[in-house]
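Entry for the shared binder. Reason: the reviewer on the internal report wants the predicted structure included alongside the sequence.
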Amino acid sequence: MNLFDASLAVHIICGAAGLVLGPVAMTARKLPGLHTRAGELYHWFMFVLCISAAAMAALEWQRIWWFLPVAIGSYAFALLGYVAAKRRFNNWLPFHLAGQGGSYIAMVTALLVVNLGIDVWWAWASPTAIGSPIIAWVSREVAQGRRPKYRASGTQQGAAADVPAAPSQQQGRG
């Protein structure tokens, strides 16, 4: 097995794991446990997915150079979502939702276009056209208090306890 094939194998494994872990994290209760463990694993699989795509692009530059900017952009979304959840800065949750959701949209797009070989305009556009309104809807639901939201614990670094806020503590409610 050459280096390209090894990178491809790692890429396929990480992509498959991410495609499974994304919905697990999305649908799990937003408390410590399954949501946070699946989200943590999802982030690290996305990181290795980016590294393996970069390796493949470097090894086959003339053919798949475009893997590199796509991988960097996809991981940038995942990193935004991950850092937002870890740092819990002011108004972090919309960034977390957009970052994780955007990275998942990128993975579904790659599945359709690269893995399934559907190289038509709608394969590139439909994951974004479907996923972006869902992300916007969930963000609006959270802002209006209809979905769980977390309260800040008041630590200096902006970390928050993974405990749902009481309705009176939820911002944007009322």
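Summary line for the report: The two ends are 60 Å apart (CA to CA).
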